[in-house]
Write the C-alpha cells for this entry.
Amino acid sequence: MGQKKGRIGFTCAYTPLAIIDAAGFTPFRLLPVGNWPDQAGRVLHDNMCPHVKRVLDCAMSDDLPPDLAGMVFVNSCDAMRRMADAWRKLRPDDKVALIDLPTTAEPGSVTYFSGQLRMLSDRLSEWGGNPVTADAIETGIETFNTVSTLLREIELLARGKRLSGGRSRMQTLYNRASTEDADTMIGDLRQIIGEAPPQNQSSAVPVFLFGNMFPDPTAYALFESSGAHVAGDDFCTGSRLFAPMENHISGDVFDRLAQQLFAHPPCARTVFPSQPANVANDILQRTRASGAAGAIGHIMKFCDPYLTRMPLVRNAFKEAGLPLLILEGDCTLGSIGQQRTRIEAFIEMLR
Amino acid sequence: MMKKYFDDLVGGIDTALNKDPANSSPRKLYAREVARLGSRLYSGTEKVAWCGVVAPFDVLNAMGVTSCYTEFIGAMLASTGMVGSFLEKAEHEGYAGDTCGYHRAVIGAMLNGWMPEPDFLIATSAPCSGGLAVMETIADHFKKDLFVLHVPQDESESSVRYLADQIRDMTGFISDHTGVPLDRDVLKDAIEKTNEARRLMEEVYQLARAIPSPVDGRMLGNFGIVMALLLGTPECVEVIRAFRDTFAGRVENRTSGIGKEKLRLMWIQNRIQFRHPLIDLLEKEYGAVVVADELNAITWEPIDPEDPFEGLARRSISIPFNGTIDRRIAHLKKQAQEYKLDGAINPCHWGCRQGTGARGLITEGLKEIGIPVLNLEVDCVDSRNFSEGQLKTRIEAFTEMLWERKKAG
C-alpha cells in the first residue's frame, strides 16, 4: 500500500470506505466524542441531533486532523443533510461531497445509489489527482473485508466473554478501525485475536444493546460495571459499519458496493416498504439470537427515524414478553451516567 | 363525526354563497374544497391513500383516489382546537414530545380511531425523515401496503429519470389496489388542468407582489401546499381563478388587503394552524402584512401532458424543502426581492429538523440581502405551549425595528 494522500472525513455508516481507500485516502470517521464548546445550535438549531451538533462543534473548534483532505457526507436523514449544509457554511474552503442515499433498497434505488457512488469516485479522483480504478476499489473492498472479518471475530470473542476489556475495548477497536489506516489496523486486530482470554468469567447478565450510535467506550464500561454483559449490539458506530462484503459476486463494482451497503444491518432511516416496522422485528430477532435476557435501546435525542419507531419496538418486545429499557442520550457520558440507576435496576430485574 | 363536521362545513359555505353570490370570497371557495376533501376522506366509500407531502396528487386524482398528506390531519385538528387530546394520546403511547406536532397529532388521531383507514399509502422521502417514519407507522397500524417515492436531492437528469420511473411504478401499484388501470387520456386531461392551475397561480403570486398588496395576512395562508392536493381537478382551477380575479380587481383599484400597508413580510415554512392573534397584531397595530409565504411559489415548469412523468418528477424535486439549504435560501432570497419585503418571520416549527434545523443558516442567508428574520420558536400545531405574551413582545420589537429601518431608508 502506497503513501496515503491524507484523510477523508465521514459521519455515516453508509459511507463507501472502499472507494475512499481506493482514491488513496484514509477514511476518518468524525466521532462525536470530545470536549468542545457547545456552539452548533446557533448555526442550525438546538433541537437537532446531538451527533450532528457535536461533529459541528468539533469542526467549529478546529479540532480536526491536519491532513483532512475533504469530507464525504451521506444524505441519510434530515439532520445529516443539514450537517453537510452547515459544514459548507462554516468551512467554505473544504472539499465536500454529499451523496444521496435512497430511502429504500428497491432495485431502482440500488441502481441510483450505484450512480451516486460513481459520482463520488469521480469527485475523489479529482481530490486525489489520480483516477480511482475499479481494480483499486476491489482492493479497497478486500482490505475492508479483512478489517470487518477480523472485527467480527473479535466481536464474537467479546460476546463470549473471551476478550479482555470486554465490549468497552471492542468499541475502542471499532473507533480505531473507523479512523486509522486499515493496513495498520489489520496487524493489530490479528494480534488481539491471538491474545489469551481473561481468566475470570463474570456472571454478568446478557443484554442486547441497540440504537443509532454509541461511540464512547467509557459508556460501555458503565453498562458492564452495572452488571450487564453485552451479548450483542446494533449501532452505526459498531458492527453496522463493518459488515464484510461478499466478493464472489460478479458485476459492476459500484452496483455491488451499492447492494452491499444496503445489505448491512440497516439504520432505522431505511424503509422496507413490504415490511413496515421492520426495524422492530429486526431488533427483536437479533436480541433473541444473541441469547440476551433483555434489550437496552440507547437513542440519540431528536433523532426522528429512531424516536418515531421506538413505540413499535416497545410493542414488539411487549408482545414477545422480552424486557426492554429505552434511554435517550446526547453523545455525552454525562447523559448516560445520569441513567445509571435505571440501568442497574433493569439489570437487577433481569437476574 | 368528522364526516358530519366536514359535511356541515360544506353546507354552511354553500348556504352563505347561495345567499349572497356577489360576495363570494375566494377563501370561502377554497375552504369549501378543503371541506369536500375532508368529507371524501372520511366517507368510507372512496378509495383513500395517505401520502407524503410531495406525492403527485394530480396522478392520484386522475386515478380516482382520494388522497392527502397526513399532515393535513394535524393541521385540521389544530384549526378546530381539538388537537390537545390527540397529542397527549401519542405522547402517552411513547411518541417523543420533541418530534413534529403535525406527526404526533396524526399518530394520536390514528391511535384514537380518528384517522380514516386508507386503502394504501404512498410515502415520500421529502420533505422530511420524520414524515416517512410516520407513514411507515401508519402502514403498520392499518396493515396496508406502502409505496415509497425517494425524491432525489437535485434535478440532474439521472435523478429526474429515477423519480420518473418510480412515479410510473407508483401508477402500477395504485392500479393493483384499485383494480383500475391508468387511463392515459384522463391523466392527460388532469395534467392540462394542473398546467392551467399553475398558470393561474403564477398570476395570483404576481398580483400579490403589487404595492400595496391585495392580500391580507390570511388569504393565502396554506394556499400553495393545500392547492397541491387538488391539482388535476376543475375545482382547483376554479378556486385559483377566483383568487386571481379578486386580486386583479384590487390591484386595478390599488386596494390594499389590510388598509394602510406599512411593512411587507414573508412567512417562512408553514403557518401556525391553531387560532392565534399574531396576524391581527401585525396588521392592526403595525400595518405589517404577510404578503408572501415560502411555499406560495411556482418552482416547476409546465408538465408535458403527453409524457408527464419527468415533469412530475421535476416538480417534486423542486420544492424548496428538498435538497441542500443553498437551494432553499436562494428561493427565499428570490421571493424577498420579488415581493420587496421588509422582513421575514420564521415560526421555527418545533421538532422540524429539515426546516427549523436550518434556522441559523436561513437567518444568515437572508441577512446577506438585508432581510431581518424573526425566529419565533412555536409548535405550529401544538397550542398547549403557545406563549402569546412573549411572542407579542417579540413581534412588537421586530416590527418597530423594521419600521425604523424603513424610515431611515
